[in-house]
Amino acid sequence: MPPDPFAGDPHDPALSLDVPEGEEPDALSEQERDEVVADLADLAVYQALLEGRGVRGIVVDCGDCGEQHFHEWSLLRASLQQLLEEGQMRPHEPAFDPDPANYVTWEYCRGYADAVLSDG
Predict the structure, then answer these.
(1) Are 86 and 99 in contact (CB under 8 A)?
(2) What ranges does the record give for the region Disordered, renumbered to this chain (predicted)?
(3) Which H or E run includes 79?
């Protein structure tokens, strides 16, 4: 048998198969829901400000694997919406050969938006 490409990965898609039937994931707390709603609103602002400047999305440093994950705007929005609706994000395919120069951090987005919106 070939080696399992998800061996040791806490986000292994097969782990969801081990959830007993009828058991639902833990619902988000009210505070967590509010945070996701705020993130979705922020994401819309960041995309509106940065997409026209060539930024394709957000890069996140993964604490689990130690690598960077590149999320295009629509993928990140879909993942946050799914978290809001289902209480969890399903695994997704990583970006194919992303150019790191086309992605910025959430903190960069926040700082850029603050600077642009305060200059008005």
Answers:
(1) no
(2) 1-32
(3) helix 73-86
